[in-house]
Design goal:
By secondary structure, the protein is an alpha+beta fold. The chain has a domain at 2-230 and 446-467. Helix content is 19%, strand content 33%. The chain has a seven-stranded mixed beta sheet with strand order 5-4-9-12-13-2-14. A six-stranded antiparallel beta sheet has the order 8-7-6-3-10-11, with no helix packed on it. α4 (163-180) crosses α5, α4 packs antiparallel against α9 (436-444) and α4 (163-180) crosses α10 (449-457). The longest helix is centred in the middle third of the chain and has 18 residues, at 163-180.
Length: 469
């Protein structure tokens, strides 16, 4: 790892406050002396609400959000503050027995890092402000990034896992937050949901989570001087994927790498096991309904389903499907890359598909991932280099095949016999970046947090683990 460049630090901190104390001192330190930028998290947004209220615990100041040095009132612990919209241009606030109005938003700012406010029954560190776009009113938790991570890491990874996996998650979450932070974001940088990172405020904190965040304070992943949007998901099914094979852009070149520790997810819980290996079974009618809903069309009667690991000459490095097509009597619907999960309502795209409804239960899969259905094993022929053919199976109902790894598989006619389509899959999530169960198992296997991070993100691709502050 390396120290971030001065240029990088300037870019990160030019539009937010830079402080000097360590988050490890948060329990007794001043809020305005913490390391790192402030990120803005949208707690709620509504077109119908015109006011929000909070109750403070600790000493707060009511200030102008545009000029925090302008103090309207000092707020004592236990007092309530009501923020409201005064119209398309105005803001109003009631606090400390007084009413205030302004053309710019108000913000409640804590004196210390362990002061907090309660909003909608939940407690949050940091600042609170309300903003409106004229028709939409936002409740915003503006908070030092290190304190924000206290409320993220456990909600994203879970609790009770080893220190190194938790620290690796803290680094990934910090880098993701900084990559999404921008002064050009008018209202907020992040949400509280999986649309960015799950944030639970103080209810999500534990001492081990706080220790993991403090122990990695300022550590992020960087590419060409900018924070990397470090994607992660529950389980990669044994191998991660190149980012451009899941979405569109490879501007940040996150590469697919082996993730063998994913297979150990079942050691931690039944849920963990379900993230590594799973099956889904559909009737032909159900697949037609999924296709019609996804494509907003009517494909008619079911004719078949096909998939490929190649799209436009680009092949998945992990074996994930790159295209899936459901065909009907009046048309077809195709989904590509990560959209396949939406089409078929799947945990991941690392799948194989057996279509027991289309006349045969024997399938041959080509190098491009396309499958060919045979009526029976008796229809399988071998072709010599000279072009001659011979039956590969001699009429037996059982055939054995050996893969390149030497693993021998037994094929039988008949399949499940249901006439349904069976999708077998591995992994849970998009497949890019850090595997959370993989990281947990790696930590238990003796890998350090920085080794985990570098394994998943730094594969000779220019991405580096750096100390940003």
């Amino acid at each position: 790892m390396k120290k971030a460049s001065k240029l990088c630090l300037t870019a990160l901190l030019s539009c937010a406050l830079l402080f000097c104390a360590l988050p490890a001192e948060a329990s007794s330190g001043r809020y305005d002396r913490l390391d790192g930028v402030e990120v803005r998290v949208m707690l709620t947004g509504s077109s119908s609400a015109s006011s929000y209220s909070i109750t403070v615990n600790g000493d707060y100041e009511l200030v102008s959000a545009e000029d925090p040095d302008y103090v309207y009132a000092e707020i004592s612990s236990g007092e309530r503050i009501v923020f409201s919209s005064g119209g398309s241009r105005d803001y109003r606030c009631e606090a400390a027995g007084e009413s205030f109005s302004s053309s710019s938003p108000f913000m409640a700012v804590p004196e210390r890092a362990d002061d907090y406010f309660t909003y909608n029954g939940s407690s949050y560190r940091g600042c609170f402000k309300a903003m409106h776009s004229g028709s939409y009113y936002y409740a915003i938790n503006q908070i030092n990034i290190e304190l924000y991570l206290y409320g993220v890491v456990g909600r994203e990874l879970g609790y009770g896992y080893n220190e190194d996996a938790t620290m690796a998650q803290a680094v990934a979450a910090r880098s993701y937050a900084l990559a999404n932070y921008s002064d050009s974001n008018v209202y907020y940088d992040l949400t509280t949901t999986t649309s960015s990172q799950v944030y639970g405020g103080m209810s999500a904190e534990t001492q081990s989570i706080i220790d993991a965040v403090d122990g990695t304070c300022g550590m992020i992943l960087e590419y060409r001087g900018e924070p990397v949007q470090t994607y992660y998901s529950s389980n990669m099914g044994g191998h991660t994927e190149n980012i451009e094979n899941v979405w569109v852009s490879d501007a940040i070149p996150i590469r697919g790498v082996p993730s063998p520790h994913d297979a150990l997810a079942g050691n931690y819980s039944s849920y963990g096991a379900s993230t590594y290996s799973w099956t889904v079974e559909y009737t032909p009618a159900e697949l037609v309904a999924l296709a019609n809903s996804y494509g907003d069309t009517d494909i008619g009667d079911y004719r078949g389903i096909s998939y490929s690991t190649t799209l436009n000459g680009q092949t998945s490095v992990s074996g994930r499907a790159m295209t899936v097509t459901i065909s009907g009597s009046r048309g077809s619907v195709t989904a590509t890359k990560d959209n396949i999960r939406s089409l078929l309502d799947l945990k991941s795209t690392l799948i194989t598909i057996s279509d027991g409804s289309s006349g045969g239960d024997v399938y041959v899969k080509g190098a491009d991932g396309q499958t060919v259905s045979l009526d029976s094993l008796d229809d399988l022929y071998a072709v010599s280099s000279g072009g001659g053919t011979m039956k590969a199976n001699g009429g037996s109902s059982v055939l054995y095949v050996a893969g390149s790894s030497g693993v021998v598989s037994e094929l039988r006619e008949g399949g499940a016999g249901s006439g349904n389509i069976v999708i077998s899959g591995r992994g849970y999530g998009h497949g890019v970046g850090l595997s959370q169960f993989g990281a947990i198992a790696m930590g238990d296997d003796g890998y350090t947090w920085d080794e985990i991070i570098e394994h998943y993100f730094c594969s000779d691709n220019g991405i580096e683990l750096v100390e940003a502050y």
